[in-house]
């Protein structure tokens, strides 16, 4: 159908096109649609007006979606037509592989896919497709959201089984991938207890060790610090329990000054070359002081916050 206007196609002679505006309309800021898109949308409005749900509507809506994948009303009408005509939804999913790979940042593509999977009930193969998309764009919000929906909606242990290993692989590739850190919180803390993780104290120790290693590797990575704060708050663990770990990240020039014979292996020091002091660590230490009711500790917190505002983190001063 591409390259041929519907107005020139005899197969569509029975449809009365509906223009976006009346002939006498004088829009303030008209959009310069291509003639191909304008023609297709005129015929789309025509079939909506008559309520037609047929195979040729699927051809029309695919044509429009490829020109404008964000057109929500076209997606919805396409879905209604698929259901009404009892179309092959597996074939539709294959089509979405193609369109989704090309338009992976379009919400409507993922919403349509979700509707299909709810009917097909084939979540496991979806993980491979999601991985292929994240291999291209590892921080795509819509892709990660779809992955989380898939896990939570079907809640199948076989789906959850490899999630920790997968997110660790993503963080090995990019320790600053905030989307991957968010997904780790979703998997470990935010969606119930998975098989094998019933001992939450052990999980807490595991996650502390993991995030400490990642902070030591890249101290100025806000994503790792946010993950640490998130699960400490979630488990109601006082920030003060991390004081010994935090201190080396708050002192300028502290890298390389540790006595390896007395180093606490549970608290890895900042990696060589780290830029210190680390603003996130200074803020964390200030909040540790805020936890204490004594006047001296509150005053120390104020000093730290002033140092952040005036020296170490000026961009967030306001």
UniProtKB/TrEMBL annotation:
Gene3D superfamilies noted in UniProt: Protein prenylyltransferase
GO cellular component: CAAX-protein geranylgeranyltransferase complex; protein farnesyltransferase complex
Region (Disordered): 1-20
Keyword 4Fe-4S: no
Name of one Pfam family that matches: PPTA
GO molecular function, one term: protein farnesyltransferase activity
UniProt keywords, alphabetically: Magnesium, Prenyltransferase, Repeat, Transferase
Cofactor(s) the protein requires to work: Mg(2+)
EC number: 2.5.1.58, 2.5.1.59
Family: Belongs to the protein prenyltransferase subunit alpha family.
Protein name: Protein farnesyltransferase/geranylgeranyltransferase type-1 subunit alpha
PANTHER family per UniProt: PROTEIN FARNESYLTRANSFERASE ALPHA SUBUNIT/RAB GERANYLGERANYL TRANSFERASE ALPHA SUBUNIT, PROTEIN FARNESYLTRANSFERASE_GERANYLGERANYLTRANSFERASE TYPE-1 SUBUNIT ALPHA
EC class: transferase
């Amino acid at each position: 159908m591409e390259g041929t206007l519907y107005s020139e196609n005899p197969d569509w002679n029975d449809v009365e096109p509906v223009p976006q505006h009346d002939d006498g309309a004088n829009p303030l800021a008209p959009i310069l649609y291509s003639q191909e898109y304008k023609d297709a949308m005129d015929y789309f409005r025509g079939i909506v007006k008559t309520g037609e749900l047929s195979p040729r509507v699927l051809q029309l809506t695919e044509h429009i979606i490829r020109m404008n994948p964000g057109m929500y009303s076209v997606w919805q009408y396409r879905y209604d037509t698929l259901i009404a005509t009892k179309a092959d939804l597996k074939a539709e999913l294959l089509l979405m592989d193609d369109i989704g790979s090309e338009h992976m940042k379009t919400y409507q593509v993922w919403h349509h896919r979700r509707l299909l999977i709810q009917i097909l009930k084939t979540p496991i193969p979806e993980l491979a497709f999601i991985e292929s998309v994240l291999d291209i764009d590892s921080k795509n919000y819509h892709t990660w959201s779809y992955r989380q929906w898939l896990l939570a909606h079907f809640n199948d242990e076989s789906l959850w089984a490899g999630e920790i290993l997968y997110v660790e692989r993503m963080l090995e590739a990019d320790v600053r991938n905030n989307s991957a850190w968010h997904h780790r919180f979703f998997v470990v803390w935010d969606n119930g207890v998975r098989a094998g993780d019933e001992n939450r104290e052990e999980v807490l120790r595991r996650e502390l060790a993991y995030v400490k290693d990642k902070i030591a590797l890249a101290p100025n990575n806000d994503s790792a610090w946010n993950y640490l704060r998130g699960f400490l708050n979630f488990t109601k663990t006082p920030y003060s329990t991390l004081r010994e770990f935090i201190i080396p990240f708050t002192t300028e020039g502290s890298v390389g000054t540790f006595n390896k014979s007395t180093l606490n292996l549970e608290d890895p020091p900042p990696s060589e070359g780290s830029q210190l002091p680390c603003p996130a660590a200074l803020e964390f230490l200030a909040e540790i002081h805020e936890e204490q009711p004594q006047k001296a500790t509150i005053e120390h917190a104020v000093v730290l916050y002033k140092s952040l505002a005036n020296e170490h983190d000026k961009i967030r001063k306001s």
